[in-house]
Amino acid sequence: MADIFREVDEEVRRDKAAEFWKKYQNWIIGVAVIVILATGGWRFVEYQRRVASEQAGLKFQDAVQLAQQGKVKEAEGAFEQIARSGAAGYSVLSRLRAAAEAGAQDRDQGIKLFDALGADTTIDKTFRDLARLRAAILAVDRVSLDEARKRLEPLAGADGVYRHTARELLALAAFKAEDFDVASRWLDNLIVDAQTPASVRQRATTLQALIAAGRPAK
After folding, report:
1. What are the DSSP E strand ranges found in the chain?
2. Which pLDDT tens digit goes with each residue over 108-126?
3. How far apart are alpha carbons 92 and 81 in whole angstroms?
4. Would you state the torsion angle of the CA atoms of residues 125, 126, 129, 135, taken in this order, to the nearest 10 degrees?
């Protein structure tokens, strides 16, 4: 008797499954096709991105070689071409290199290009901060202390990736402007920061000693 009921139950389930398939088979097949097409399309896009990235990498290396050979204009043009291509990663790197090559020939142009990168919110903050730092490096010895502070202080905070370089530049800018109190404060920040590179800390200590030796006794 139990076997009979089990067979009847299985038959009912098969009938229900067949009925369900007959009713919804078009929807099921359609969804399956969409999933297959989406997966295939995603893999194709990833393949295209990988190929484009590899090609951009080769072009980037060629542009670097042009720069190393002293062919500045050709290198700058090559980097700009890669930047316009929008290749992941290499586009930003190429814009940074193009700005650097331009700055080597025309400091104002380099500052302009780095400032544009620093203001571009479509790229990662780390790259924006690097561009701001590079612009400040080009500008620091030709601008006022107030302008140097405006450019560098946002990069000199405790969580700043480039804070050590920014602090050292702020100290040098203040030293140049003969504002020794400000210079000394930034040097102290460098000296007490456990993560300050040894070479930077050594320079900071030396400059701090020069400031102390040159100050009149109070």
Report:
1. none
2. 999 999 999 999 898 888 8
3. 12
4. -120
